[in-house]
Amino acid sequence: MKVYFYHTQDVCRILGEWREGRFPGHFLYGATRLGGLGIEVTWHSHFTGYRRWRAMFRTAREVLSRGEKVDAVFATHYQGLELVILLRALGLFRKPIVVWMHQPMGASGSVARRLLVRVFYRGIDRMLFFSRTILEQSLCSPAAIPQRMGIGRWGADTDYYDRLMQSEGRSGRGGFVSTGKELRDIPTLVEAASATDAEVDIYLPDNFSVDGHGVTRHGLERKYGKILKGNVRITYVRGLIPYELSKIVNRAACVVVCCYETNYTAGLTTVVEAMALGLPVICSRNPNMPMSPERDGFGISVDYGDVDGWRRAIEWVAAHPAEAKAMGERARRLAETTYNDRNCALDVAAALREVAGRKAGGN
Known about the structure:
Blueprint: E1 2-6, H1 11-19, E2 40-43, H2 52-65, E3 72-75, H3 82-89, E4 97-101, H4 111-121, E5 126-129, H5 132-139, E6 149-151, H6 158-168, E7 176-178, H7 186-194, E8 200-205, E9 209-210, E10 215-216, H8 217-224, E11 232-237, H9 242-250, E12 254-257, H10 268-276, E13 281-284, E14 299-302, H11 307-319, H12 321-337, H13 341-360
Helix pairs in contact: 7-11, 10-12
């Protein structure tokens, strides 16, 4: 079986660094392991510097030109692939499409928009959702086709983290660390952490901002300039440097993931990295996550914007190192058994074979 793999990010760069052991494979959503499952992958060429519509047409041309050479299309997101999906819905593209769905399906707005959305979703032969919560919300959409919807076990490339821990070691871990950029509620984290004696290091992209919440790098520095000279530190990083950040996370005793409220799994990448490294997690209570630090016993969940709750969680972990270590061990076991890129690849492969078989059988 052959599939065309589409990603919104630079696949060539990620793939090259993954082969060098400097990029975790889960950023490619199980695609790096499909070869071992008998599925040959054709990798999408990322277009840089293009406006959205032009990139969409170039992607469509790229996919259509290889249509006869592949059995299906596998995409990490529908963004940028809309034209191909619409052609599939209209019966003008004959290959089945499997897409990861990051947010609940919707079909709101004008009558014309609702109709377009329903037609569009018909062009996706299998939707893989990150959690049961997002799947169940999507089933409420009038555009939902239940038999085309399922859950994928998206999780960490544990081999990558095993090599990193073997190289860097696991002794001397200490303090708290925050990485990631999506919807991070840094004001809540800074205010809570500054009320403790814990050492908290926050790593953010140098152009950090949170749309809709008015949080920017300049605003953080202006508001918390004095606080950030104490036990709480913010370091700004340039570019996508997962290997360097993974080494930093590996030196911490606990990972903190403080986010604003959202309808998707903001912070999931950071959580699965912590799990693979065997670290406890303090995380905003996001019901859209497939796992829960509190429910699954590998950390503490805190309500959105709860400064005092975050303070108490940080103080508890700092005061109970043995219990925190046990949480980290449970996190690692969960990564080994459930949330890893091997299981992700198995779920993707099953979906791809099913839709390809359905097409071959004329269903």
